[in-house]
Amino acid sequence: MGHAYTPGLRVAAETVVRRERRLPLKGDVCVVAGAAVGPESVIARCVLPGNVQTVNLAAKLGVDPAAVGGTLLKPVGSAVALDETIAEAKAMFGLMRNRVASPADGTLESVSSVTGQLLVRERPIPVEVNAYVRGHVAEVLPGEGAVVESRAALVQGIFGVGGETNGRLAIATSGPGQSLEASHLKPEHRGAVVVGGDHVTHATVLKARELGVRALVVGGFDDRDLRQLLGRDLGVAITGQEELGITLVLTEGFGRIGMAARTWELLNAHAGKVASVSGATQIRAGVLRPEILIPLDERAGAHASEAEGGTLEVGSFVRVIRQPWFGRLGCVVELPAELAALDTEARVRVLVVEFADDRTRATVPRANVERLAG
Fold it and tell me: Comparing 329 with 166, which gets the higher pLDDT?
């Protein structure tokens, strides 16, 4: 067999990316097709209903549920402020008055004469969706958002946490094999996307956040440090909604793993340019990888689609993702058609990879590699 298909990470010097930017609810689209947008440009807006706070008026006022409607000082539908008195009832034969304050700024939504419960709807939450990456509006999605298209350099990571951000790309270490230490971080890195080498510690991530660094891109991170950073076990690996104050993207995996030379060289070549970064990761159905996008100057011609790639063939550049060669990079030199027996006695399709560091060769199950596309 001369070729096969395997999922892999993209490391592309130039490609065309399209990103759908959608509202969670129907709203107003603020752009038109063909419009130029920057990462902070507002694509669409909507308003989410506020949360509902429940107040047990009957219990708090000591009245029958059927009588709670008469205790309200404002009619249902009225605006109220936090700690404002919203209901009042006499107690102790009229010698005392029980009062209930609003638990939030919002609106009196409804009151039940059956349960004695009052619902206070908090203020609506305005939501804006930005473009995320510099480019142009390729398609408008009426009432929902738009598709933003950009010609960019693309680096996909293995894993990430934190939301979308953008900033100037800054190289903080001398090479892909050097760990990113707190001493590498400088005041001028505020607002930047900082690229390190093979590893970063939890303490250094906290120092970066304190300095105002927007994102860190490194080869590896310890899983125990990830638990400490998140304050919990990750569980199902769907990330991107964490409110960490910083985005972290791992290009290689967990542990101390040197960043692939190809990835390092690409990021280093674009130092000083504005990059858009997302830590969103989903490793089950509908795989989603964290990414670094570096928009390039628009020009006619070279438009390689981001959807291209994925075919594994002789000459493909791959990373081994299982032991005993975990993390090693190399080039496919053979794709035998026949099945090969493993130590477990299972018979699987394999390939022969020549490792980039020492030119040695190994036979590896195809399921144990991922293609570094681009």
Answer: 166
pLDDT in tens, 364-373: 888 788 777 5
27, part of any domain = no
Overall residue count recorded for the chain in this entry? 374
Residue 139 contacts residue 29 (beta carbons within 8 Å): no
Residues 249 and 288 in one domain: yes
- Per the model's pLDDT, the better-predicted residue between 46 and 62 turns out to be 46
Neighbours of 126 (CB within 10 A): 10
Element (H, E) at 61: helix 57-61
The CATH code of the domain that includes 172 is 3.50.30
Name the pTM for this structure: 0.76
CA distance linking residue 321 with residue 252, whole number of Å = 9
Domain with 157 in it: 10-17+150-295
CA dihedral 153, 157, 160, 164 (to 10 degrees): 10
Same-domain check for residues 187 and 233: yes
More confident residue, 1 or 242: 242
Structure tokens belonging to residue 208: 């970066």
Considering the domain architecture, whether residues 118 and 205 belong to the same structural domain is answered as: no
Q: 291 and 243 in one domain?
A: yes
The 10s digit of each residue's pLDDT in 65-90 is 999 989 999 999 999 999 999 999 88
Q: Which residues contact 240 (CB under 8 A, 6 or more apart)?
A: 160, 161, 162, 163, 164, 278, 279, 280, 281, 288
What is the pLDDT, as a whole number, of residue 164? Answer: 95
Residue 301 has pLDDT above 90, yes or no: no
Task: Give the total number of structural domains in the chain.
Answer: 3
Q: Are 87 and 108 in contact (CB under 8 A)?
A: no
With respect to residue 366, please indicate whether it lies within any of the assigned structural domains.
yes
Question: Is the same domain home to 287 and 181?
Answer: yes
Using CA atoms, how far apart are residues 131 and 278, in angstroms rounded to an integer? Answer: 13
